[in-house]
Write a structure and sequence with these properties.
This protein is α/β, with parallel strands linked by helices and about 400 residues long. The chain has twelve helices and 15 strands. The chain has a domain of about 200 residues: RecF/RecN/SMC, N-terminal domain (Glutathione S-transferase Yfyf (Class Pi), Chain A, domain 2, Up-down Bundle). Strands 2-1-4-5-6-7 form a six-stranded antiparallel beta sheet. Strands 8-12-13-3-14-15 form a six-stranded mixed beta sheet, sandwiched between helices. The longest helix is centred in the middle third of the chain and has 37 residues.
């Protein structure tokens, strides 16, 4: 897969950009705060339809555009995969007036694929991209929410049904938490039954899919991680679900489950087991949840653990080990996308050369060799091998403007 053309309007510091992208490796050199990361973020945003850096879509709109009567941002990419050309367009349009809180106006996403309006769940993964940036160390060092997001973004590119279930679960969770707060001190809990059922319905599929994803990624890193550590370390991934995936005595509760893309008797049995366990745990936690006014059981409390030679890397891993784990996970993500989509994802590498030592850079360069398209940013070309640069397209970015870089 590769991007043929990228168009940005009022995105971050790009007021207007029209860019034809060649195949192979594209090296983008520039000083800090000139737009290197913003360019990679734009491409990844078109892939996952949510930003890796912004807490709200409003932050993505060019600051000068915020002075217009109707602020907006627009991103368009023409993609080529297996001889087919598709276009994905994402617009952010102000959906209401300035908020009294001073946080700025809200923005609404409008998505079109080949000219047809699409929901987020229908457009995620049309552009497959893997982003590797220095901040990704938080995958190991950060909070569980960072690891949940990593799993969600990866699975959503492969499974639209998961993406829809994730959106619905978020809506149900918000409504259920609101109800729990309003029911504090009241005896009538019957209103929770409907939201319990909806939470279980969508949460069971998330739990089942995440478990399978972690097992698959764990198998992939068994080959990748030893190559990054000269065979000295063995990395294992451990899914830590909030909901027990095993049968619980007395958990005979059943419900109709939506058929996903992998529907089968085995899947249905697994989902029924998780559903019964989830429902039982909700009943056990009822008093605690009513007291706290928040849902304490469900996929929103999941985590992912990394162990190297049996040692927990979140608590005891060195900076070097954490960096190697992150690189292993990103390379495993590339392998998984290629395996399922039968196509290489676009690789987005944000100033990784300065963060990796020589052996890790070599492993990363080997992964790049088979990719159809790679965008790699750097502040200094000296961080990259001369032979590598000879084979690459060189661009320079300054103040949101991109132009070819003279090799001399």
């Amino acid at each position: 897969m590769r991007i043929i053309h990228l168009s940005l309007t009022n995105f971050r510091n790009y007021s207007h950009l029209e860019l034809d992208l060649p195949e192979g490796v594209i090296v983008i050199q520039g000083d800090n705060a000139q737009g290197k990361t913003n360019l990679l973020e734009a491409i990844h945003y078109l892939s996952t339809l949510r930003s890796v850096r912004a807490s709200s879509d409003r932050e993505l709109v060019h600051w000068l555009a915020m002075e217009d009567d109707l602020p907006f941002a627009r991103l368009v990419a023409q993609l080529q995969s297996a001889g087919q050309v598709d276009q994905i367009e994402l617009s952010l349009v102000q959906s209401g007036p300035q908020r009294p809180s001073g946080n700025g106006p809200a923005f609404r996403k409008h998505i079109r694929v080949n000219g047809a309006n699409k929901r987020v769940s229908e457009a995620v993964g049309l552009l497959n991209a893997v982003l590797f940036m220095p901040q990704d160390l938080e995958l190991v060092t950060g909070s569980p929410s960072v690891r949940r997001r990593y799993l969600d973004d990866t699975i959503c590119q492969l499974d639209p049904h998961y993406c829809r279930a994730l959106q619905e679960y978020g809506r149900v969770l918000t409504q259920r938490n609101y109800l729990l707060r309003s029911l504090r001190g009241q005896a009538d809990e019957s209103q929770l039954l409907f939201w319990d059922q909806r939470l279980v319905e969508h949460g069971a599929y998330l739990t089942w899919r995440r478990n399978g994803a972690v097992q698959h990624l764990d198998a992939l890193v068994q080959d990748i991680h030893p190559r990054l550590t000269d065979g000295q370390e063995r990395l294992r991934l451990q899914y830590c679900p909030s909901v027990s995936m095993e049968y619980r005595p007395g958990g005979a509760w059943q419900m109709p489950l939506p058929a996903g893309p992998d529907a089968s008797p085995e899947l249905d049995a697994s989902l029924q087991t998780i559903s019964a366990s989830f429902h039982g745990q909700l009943q056990e936690a009822r008093a605690r949840e009513l007291d706290q006014g928040v849902s304490t059981i469900g996929p929103h409390r999941d985590d992912l653990a990394f162990e190297v030679n049996g040692v927990d890397m979140h608590a005891f891993g060195s900076r070097g080990q954490q960096r190697t784990i992150t690189l292993s996970m990103k390379l495993a993500e590339v392998s998984w996308l290629k395996e399922v989509k039968n196509d290489e994802p676009v690789l987005l590498l944000d100033d990784v050369a300065s963060e990796l030592d020589a052996s890790h850079r070599r492993c990363l360069m080997e992964a790049i060799e088979d990719a159809q398209q790679v965008l790699l940013t750097t502040t200094e070309l000296g961080h990259l091998d001369g032979g590598f640069l000879e084979q690459a397209t060189l661009w320079q970015v300054a103040a949101g403007r991109i132009e070819s870089l003279n090799r001399s």
